[in-house]
Structure formats: structure tokens, C-alpha cells
Amino acid sequence: SISKNRIQVGHILNYEDKFYRYEQASPATALFGNSFVTSNLVDRTDLEELNNRVFVEYSNNILGTLNFQANHTYYNYGYNSVLIQEEGRIPNGIQGDLIAVGAAYKKMYRGFQLKGEAQTNVVGDFSGLDFKAEASYDLKDKANFSGGIHINSAPANYNHLLYQSSYENYNWFNAEAYDNVKTSSLYFNMQSNKWLNASAELVNIADYAYFAKNDLGLTQSFQAGENVTYLKLKLNKEFRFGKFALDNTVAYQNVSSGMNYLNVPEVITRNTLYYTDQWFQKALFVQTGFRFNYFTEYNMNGYDPVLAEFYV
Fold it and tell me: Fewest CB atoms within 10 Å of the CB: 136, 200, 214, 258?
């Protein structure tokens, strides 16, 4: 690099290997339906992912910063056996490679910080794209304003696409039937120690994947037939009185469509009164206080331990 130009070449490697194991001495058929086994029920789901990202980034005082990248992801999700039922065959795994390419750009222009990033899958069984654009502005030392748009299209989580269990109901393969979950959002943020912190976000989700009870009262995966539209407004302000402080947050949420698939309380408040000091000649940092949380009544999601997921 020199004073006005800089080139970076980089490589990031990330490897993840995890599993979920569900065990039960005897099946709870009243809760989860019929089981293939009568005792010592053991379900295990494995996921292995290896991601390599290489990038080239060029920075210039006048042109800004331009980044080009390529990603390779190897994924291996599933189980150790194939399940054959009268309704059809459920494979033991979802395995493959994805290659994605993308670019990013950022620049300061007349006090505005401009950012943009786009990425799309070009090779692999799963299609997908991600696009972000944001502009921010610092109003001297008073506040920072930012706003942007985010568009994403990606497959549903693996356990929506494929699941196997000793419980008969918890076996499905939706990888070829489900469309990508498409999420678009508009957001605005203001950060100000002098005034207050505020944020607003409007989210629209098409082909939303969720878990819910079927006609038999058993949990299964579904894909919403209508869009989910969600609005969230949040305000935060902290007041200081010497060594005491009062931190207040209030949020308003509204699901204007798709309320059968997404449950949220309409109003949430969080209030914290706390004391901060350093004792014994600054050898001990002390912070203690009280917190009050409140939310309006709503239909909370249930928890399904077989899936380790919440359901509507």
C-alpha cells in the first residue's frame, strides 16, 4: 500500500461441526405420536459446514473501497440411515457444495457514509442472493443517522427441509417442495447520547417457513401461503444522576399480515435503575440495580423438545 492506494488480499476459513441429540427412556406417544421403537429412543441430527472465502479489496482516497469476493461452502446435514415409508422415501442427508460471488463498496461523500454489498449463489443445488445498501450521516457530535435496505433469498433451515426421528410424525423431506424464504426490510436508526436512540424497521417475508401443529395436534413444518409483514419501532434513552442511571427502552411491534404465523407482543418496555462506582481505591468495580420488564398479552409460541424448536 501507499498513502492514497491500498490493495488487500485475504482468505477466511470457517469450519463448524455440531449435532443435536434427543434421548428418552420410553416414547411419550401421547405428546408426540406413534414411535418406531418402544424403549431407549435416541435421535441424532448432524451438521458439518466448511466455508472458504477469498477476497481482493482496493481502497483509494477518491474512489472509496471496492471489494470482490468468492465463497465456497461444503455442507453435510442429516442422519445415518434412509427411511422408507408407504408414503415414500426420506433420504438420510442433504449434502453438496455452493459457490457464491459478490462485491461490496463503501465511500464517504459530503458527510455521508455510503455502503453497498451484493452476493449470489452461482453453483450448487440451492439458489440464493443477499443485497444490502446503507447510508449514514454524523450530525457533528449530536447524533448519527443511518438507513438502508436489505434483501435476502435463502432456503429454509435444514430441519425444515429434512428431518428424521423415531417418532413417526417427525419425518419429512421438503427440500424439493419448499421455495426460498424471501426477506426484504427497510430500516432507520438514530444514535444520540444528547437526544435519544431510535430505530424503525419494516420487514416483509414471503414463503416464511415455520413449525405448527397439524390436524392431529402434532408438530410439523409448514410454509406460509401469504406474506408476513412486520413493523417494529423502538426508543431508548438513559438518564444519569451522578452515580445512578435510569435506562428506558420501549418498543412497539405490529404484524399487519401473516399474524397466524408470527406471534409478538404489541408493546415491550425495559427499565433499569442502576448504581455504578469504583470502591477500595478503584480496586473493585461495582454495578448493581433493578430491572423491570413488561410486555402486553400475546399468544406465546410453544416449545417442541424433539425438534428443539418453537412452534406457533
Answer: 214
Mean of the per-residue pLDDT values for the chain? 95
d(CA 258, CA 237): 32
CA dist 23 and 220 (Å) reads: 19
**Does the pLDDT value for residue 2 go beyond 70?**
no
Q: Give first-to-last CA distance, the chain, whole Å.
A: 54
Domain residues of the chain, as ranges?
Answer: 5-311
Q: How far is CA 23 from the centre of its chain?
A: 27
Residue 156's SS3 state is coil
Contact present, 187 and 199 (Cβ < 8 Å) = yes
To the nearest 10°, the Cα dihedral for 251, 255, 259, 263? -20
Residue 38 neighbours by CB under 8 Å, 6+ apart:
26, 27
Give φ, ψ of 29 to 5 degrees: -65, -25
pTM (whole model) above 0.85: yes
Nearest to 172 by CA among 275, 110, 85, 301: 85
Q: Under a CB-based contact definition with an 8 Å cutoff, are residues 166 and 306 in contact?
A: no
Q: Which residues contact residue 166 at a Cβ distance below 8 angstroms, ignoring those fewer than 6 apart?
A: 27, 35, 36, 37, 41, 42, 43
pLDDT at 141: 82
Q: What per-residue confidence (pLDDT) applies to 73?
A: 97
Estimate to the nearest angstrom the gap between the alpha carbon of 113 and the chain centroid: 25
Q: Which CATH superfamily is domain 5-311 in?
A: TonB-dependent receptor, beta-barrel domain (2.40.170.20)
Q: Other C-beta atoms within 10 Å of 224: how many?
A: 20
Nearest to residue 66, comparing CAs of 103, 119, 100, 101? Answer: 103
